[in-house]
Amino acid sequence: MSVILSVAHNELRHLVRSRVALTGLILVALLTFAAALTSQAYQADQAALRERLQHAADEDFEAQPNRHPHRVVHFGHFAIRPASGLAAMDPGVEAYTGNMIFLEGHRQNSANFGDARQSSLLVRFGQLSPALVLQVIAPLLLVFIGAGMVAGERERGTLRQSLLAGVSGGALLAGKGLALGAAALVISAPAFALLLWLGVSSAARLSAVALSAGGYLAYLAFWTLLIIAVSATARRSRSALIALVGAWTFAVVLTPRVSPEIAAALAPLPTRVETDIAVQRDLRAMGDSHNPNDPYFAAFKQKTLKAYGVERVEDLPVNYRGLLALEGEKLTSSLFNRYSNQAFAAMEAQGRVMDALVVVSPTVAIRRLSMTLSETDLFAYRLFLEQAEAYRYDLVQRLNRLQATAVTAADDAAKSKSASAEARSRISAEYWRAMPHFDPARPSAADVMGRALPALAALLFWVVAGALFAAQAGRRLNRSAA
Amino acid sequence: MTTEGEGKAIQIEDLVVRYGDRQVIDHLSLGVAAGEVYGLLGGNGAGKSTTLQAILGFVSPTSGRVRVVGLDPSAEPVGVRRAIAYIPENVALYDHLSARENVDYFLRLARLRPEQDEMEAAFRTVGLAEEAWSRPVSGFSKGMRQKTAIALALLRRASVLLLDEPTSGLDPGATADFNALVSRLRGEGAAILIVTHDLIGVADIADRIGFLEKGRIGDEMVAEGPDRFDLRALHDRFARVRAA
Q: Which domains does chain B have, with CATH numbers?
């Protein structure tokens, strides 16, 4: 162990005395610090803003005067997604998906469905975040620092001299790996400090914080092992640098950018225009509650009359228009849900393709893990949409039931002709003040962990692969240092 | 002094090394005992470097046997290297470190904990000027690097010394100092193998000289009497081996 520490100490001494490497290290550490600071400030602002907006939306909704319930249906409401605990670490798809939905009767807003092109945008690089620095920039800096760690010594002859002192190739590489790992820790320290802060400030689950930190450590460990192994295998530092920059380009830039396109090709998503046309077509086919000859609603009318044991709509103990609104909302919602589920099924299929690609690139694995643990992935987004839709449906149906029970059929029918009927059709504002608030649940810890496991396993696979490569390079070093 | 097996610190028996179809070492046999200096003399391409590589465990024999302090360098390269102090023709040191830091580091790699007093004594012994001890070696001459490496070898207290063209590029004074050091180490029981093409230089310190040509020992001479070697005879026999 002392030999490994001696090698590590010598490498770090070299790093410190080499101004260029030290400057690069300090600059990237500062970049991580800036990313952590700005991201945390931005997310804190976002969290406060969303809370304020939701509060204001609740107030506006409750501030409506006495009015007809159907007007309240069209007044609408807003559902705003609360900020997730680790969004400051990894904002994930939030920047592209939006976090606010206008809820109204008769329709799910098109944002709920998402744009077909959105699926490829979801995984593209976005704002400066600690995750971006650790996933993209940190490996590149480690490549520049570490490519010559062994190959450069081979060129200068000191590698042979070191081995002739009686140190094993494995111990030598372990020492160099330790030094490069220490450099990686310096770069990533601000991000880990942010994770710790988010954990202790109760903004995030400790299990997610620990797994996220472990995931990033594994990711950086993989790069450290790969860099040292390639450097030990290459005859020249220039060759090692070219090979490693190639590996970085493939793993960090190419695969994460191409994989959504592959996923989209294998599991295509209809375009927004196609979806809108199909929805409109199905809506027309569904029936028209205002048309007395519409077969569906004619049947509904007969069923209702039979259920209440009366002959005419006017004899019903409830307002038939309210019942029609309830039934119409049920129909349109089921239609919208069907399209929404189809879109999400396609996105899930794309997600499965992306999951499979974690064996091609460790960067895809860490991105999946990081977004999942930060609750900023597509799953968390979908959960928000589903809860918003459930809230919308419940709200609208509560209002429709009020129309059916609190507004008489006579007043409802005469409200456009009679001022007194119109006044009576306005029900008390206390009804909307008593409506429940939108309070979405976060993904459960078990869900998050379950979804994080495949990416975590992939990262461990990459670390083991890197360690095996480095161990083999160490054994080869014992035989040939020329 | 550690000697095992056949009593030789370095024992090479019937060594053959091939690189593909090319046979570089051809049934080479030689031994260096503790307290002996063996000069392996040969021209370019004679197989000197490959012989050293085989002793250091960087090249595996195609056939034959190599033992260093009883260990097989192919099977136990790290163990063998711990027993050897190797001084190459061009000493490689870490340019960002001083002579003192270099020696300290290499000793730590050899699992030794050098005392500062010992290190300074070694520097004095090899004649490295005191003001150079703490200077980065990037500005060192070849001779100063050589002296640093010899100081390291002294501190290693290795039982086997391999010297590859050790006086190449040294001025006559430095060469004489170097030879004195080698003699001292021999007196302390080290087995020393000098690989060189400098016939006159090696004649000053070697106890035996083997003429290596085309991968095999063509002839061998042993130092005798106060004059040790007859230089003219040495030269003639070397020339005959090369012409054969």
A: 10-89+161-243 (3.40.50.300)
